[in-house]
Amino acid sequence: xxYYEIDEATARRANNAYSMSDYRExxxxxxxxxxxxxxxxxxxRYKRGRGEEAAAKIDGLLDTYSSRLAENxxxxxxxTASCPSVMIAGPANFPAGKKARQNAREDKLxxxxxxxxxxxxxxxxxxxGGIQAGDPEAVRKxxxxxARLEASHATMKAANVYYRKHGTLEGCPGLTPEIAHQVNAxxxxxxxxxxxxxxxxxxxxxxxxxxxxxQLRAAKAAPAVERxxxxxxxxxxxxxxxxxxxxxxxxxxxxxxxxxKMAGFRWAPSVGAWQRQLTDNGRxxxxxxxxxxx
Length: 294
Fold this sequence. Notes:
- The chain has a five-stranded antiparallel beta sheet with strand order 1-2-3-5-4, covered by helices on one side.
- It has 294 residues and is of the alpha+beta class.
- 62% of the residues lie in helices and 9% in strands.
- It starts with 7 loop residues before the first helix and ends with a helix.
- The protein has ten helices and five strands, in the order H-H-H-H-H-H-H-H-E-E-E-H-E-E-H.
């Protein structure tokens, strides 16, 4: 694991641009390393039993997380230092236009920060194939993912309320000191710290995950389907494994095998069937193959 440099001088200027308190030397680096250490512990936990290739990918993701997090923290500190808070500069001749540009930049940096935190989810799923529809635990895993997303979104909304009430995020429940420290610098009093793009991005991911969960629940609850659709060919829908299958009485000829492969079907010797994922596209592909065989 490698740590990347945090610009302490810029962190100090950022602190002085919004806070009356003295900057504690090394605190930005300390908080950054704490976050990287937590990510490293997560990586070690998920490397167990996933093979050398997956472990190497997880190590790569950890390094990406460490480097991008440092870049993001330094960029946010530079942005903070670019324009002081009105509480520091005072209301007279306050550069409102410059502050607005700073806030717009912060929206992008916070969205980038959320994306960087998404690397931790990639660490969790590398070598495990992500959340596959055929996984017996897929519904539970999606439920867990949705709960995490909703909790994160609720934390952002609660932080907005806390900020409007207290004028700071220091001490805000659910936020690390590092996040509270950074976000405080980017807002004039009364402005919501998590507004615009970060909340929109969060809502979009929640919507996608909820839709997938609903679709998977409906598919898993559907009855199995099995019927002969063409001479010597049985069509099957298996909700348990989430596969649409074509079962031939014997080995299909070369032209039929080519047709199956072009339609996205792959031979699964463990079940003796040509199959692909059970989706609307999978069903349509099966109909096309069967129509060509009749």
